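name: query_chain
kind: protein
chains: 1
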Amino acid sequence: MLLLAAEAAASGALLKARQGRRADLLRERVGRLAAECEGAWSPALEDLSGSPARLSPREMAAARLAREGRSSPEIAAMLDISVRTVDSHLASVYLKLGIGGRLDLAQALDDAPVE
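structure:
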């Protein structure tokens, strides 16, 4: 039952993040519940298990440039990738960090280790 509760809290945190709302309390609840599950794992808990999100080096590079106020086309040109790839990287970053968008990047990136 604890694993199901952790998954429900993780789903709620993702929903809040997609709506552009902070999900810190739900993320903390996910961590507490998952810790009581003795190592049980599920896909819903992968990014919200209470441990810091792991960003790939390319995700981190795109996120840092977005944090500086760069547009997706500017980031694409700087990293020599397509605009669609930039947007894909940023969507992954938002999901992993449980944030709603570029405005939340500054604080969230300070806590996110790179893989």
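note: Residues 13 and 24 are 8 Å apart (CA to CA).
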